Amino acid sequence: MKITQEMIFEAKSYLSIIDYVKKIPSVQFKKAGVGKVLVNPCPLCGHYDHFFVYEYTNTYYSFSTRQCSGGGSIIDFIMNFKKVPRAEAVREVIELYYGNKFVVISDNELKREIKKEVNRNEYDFEDIIKKAHKYLVENGYSKYFKNRGIGRNLIKKYRLGYLNESIFNILEEKTSKKLPRQFSILLPVSRKSIILRHDPSQGGRFENKYIVLGKIEFFNQHELFDEAKDIVFVAEGIFDALSLESAYQKITVTNDRVIFLSINSVANVKKFAELIVKIPPKRIIIAFDNDPAGEQAREEVIKKIDKKHKIDILKSGKYKDINEMYLEEPGLLVAKMRKVLD
Ligand SMILES: [Zn+2]
């Protein structure tokens, strides 16, 4: 394996910054809120009460007026902690995450990949999300969402959107990517991660229905670290997760305890399994698609899952996925959810 920007990105996202800091002698950890840990003394300057690690983003921040102020990823941390250049910190992170499987590449090649990776991570889609949501709302809500059973409350809650030509232009400029205009449905995962979905009414045939831009993050991922939320429905697509949430609203109006997660593709099962090792104990209800890939992914999660969690399965029966079941037989989905939650 040659080091690529994707590898750097994955290693930095998933190599635990907490575990790395834990190896530093004589630092103490104290929970300071949901997914937030105070580290004392500050591993960078030795003073107290200003260095925090954020578990759900796997980042740190030092609230200090000293030299150690600022924050970032595990790569930024190593650069500041060991006082080494970025390339050296990247090599360390890659080696810790992948072992020795990678091919050592020249510093120049590595620098090019680092530059690509750094640029990729700079995307902030907040302006795009706002504009696309406004466009969708002002145009009377897209038929597409209605056809898939997604109501106004969820469109608002998740700021779902629709792209017009001018928003596409801004997005293309931001990402330096040519984007097919048929992918006009915007599903925000976070301000750093968005999914564009093919709108079938726009025509065209595409192998993949989605384009993921920015960070690879799961829909509602940040909620996994919330201890008060102890039930997780995990689906493949965002529309399946939204269908589960819509159906759940027919059971009760409060969903303070429930997370509706989407991993977007069964290709992300390994990442999901790595993530659930780090979260507080939960009841995890797997609601993957009713096909061989979904079946295999379900088996894989069950095999890899941490013993602290409790697993349940929600199958979509004769329907290909949860969204289809919700559209065809919403009552059945509600009944199945009730049963699994009992
Ligand atoms: Zn400090």
Summarize the topology.
Blueprint: H1 5-14, H2 17-22, E1 28-31, E2 36-40, E3 51-54, E4 59-62, E5 70-72, H3 74-82, H4 86-98, H5 107-121, H6 126-138, H7 143-147, H8 152-157, E6 161-162, H9 165-175, E7 185-190, E8 193-197, E9 210-214, E10 231-235, H10 238-248, E11 258-262, H11 269-277, E12 283-287, H12 292-304, E13 310-313, H13 322-328, H14 330-341
Parallel strand pairs: 10-11, 10-12, 12-13
Antiparallel strand pairs: 1-2, 2-3, 3-4, 4-5, 6-7, 7-8, 8-9
Helix pairs in contact: 1-4, 1-5, 3-4, 10-13, 11-12, 13-14
Zinc ion is lined by residues 42, 44-45, 47, 50-51, 62, 64, 66, 68.
Question: Can you describe what's shown?
Answer:
This protein is α+β, with helices and mostly antiparallel strands and 342 residues long. It has 14 helices and 13 strands. The strands form 3 sheets. A 5-stranded antiparallel β-sheet has the order 1-2-3-4-5. The mean pLDDT is 90. The structure holds zinc ion. The site of zinc ion has 10 residues, from loops.
